[in-house]
Specification:
single chain, alpha/beta, Isopropylmalate Dehydrogenase, seven-stranded mixed beta sheet, 13 helices
Amino acid sequence: MKIAVDAMGGDYAPDAIVEGAVQAAREYGVGIILTGLSDRLEAELSKYEDRNELPIEVVHAEDIVEMHESPAKVLRRKKKSSIKIGLQLVKDELASAFVSAGNTGAVLAFSTFTLRPLKGVDRPAIAIQLPTLKGQAILLDAGANVDCKTIQLFQFGIMGHSFAKYILGKETPDVGLLSIGEEDSKGNEVTREAFQMLKSSHINFIGNLEGKEVYRGNADVIVCDGFTGNVALKISESLAEMIGTNLKQLFMTNWRTKLGYFLLKPHFMEFKKSVDHSETGGAPLLGVNGVCIIAHGSSSPKAIKNAINRARELVEKKMNDHIREDIESNLAVSKDSFWNQIKSIAFNSEKEENTNDVAEEKIHPQKINPNRTDF
């Protein structure tokens, strides 16, 4: 197995990326293909005494995608970028997976156009792993799709179910739909329709979840559109930072509080590890025809190492095969919903023009937002 790694993506590239790749090669024995400016990468690799013994190779990529660049422009102008070449290696089956800490929007766009979505999946979703009072849960979508249709939320639920079952080890994952109330009737039109579809599926759908339920652990999978998911994620990160800063200031007040911190330090370190994104390494982009891991832009070598390990795990556990099977077993539910949408259109002479517009909006899936640059 070989994992392609975008060595030029991230705030600390290529140093941190190369170091993380070296750590992964040493610890997991997995083959790694670094894509990027070959001279710079070879110079970084030369710093390691065991470089020639490591299963690491370099593939030259002359273009670098900056974090601030528009994904739409990158798609047109940087077809020889480290992102594009790494994903092409996966498509050509020269690599089993791809990892990048670079421009999220560019990774998303190139993944969609290079690898293409899985059969039965309209649009891929970013799945973020969250700590809860009862263990771990995943939230999707975390920023890939700002506007979603009913069928796409339904597909997110199925993909999340597969990930929670085969990667997180939940035998019967509880799947919830993030909404403004627990009642079946709460939410907008899209979430209410998605509620009915998920309820009719084979997965264990537990209904709507309010925001206050996210970290309580009552659901193993939390489904939402990318706009809602990204806002929830960023607010959570900000809250965690605020709490951490305030606690630090509190414990530095006097010698008594400092002593208290010293006594509690092992427990604080254990808690910090449970909420540290570097422990999981990155978020999988579920729904594309290949394994793709999107790491945080500020990823450390440790985070890159763990992102590579997560990619290896998804390949070994045949994540995409399970998603295909689950999507296929639920096609009847999605087809029924599609037919109901068609039947609901009133084809009469007075409303024909308006209803044709509605039909077009319902039938044709919206394209992935090309302007996402982070999650």
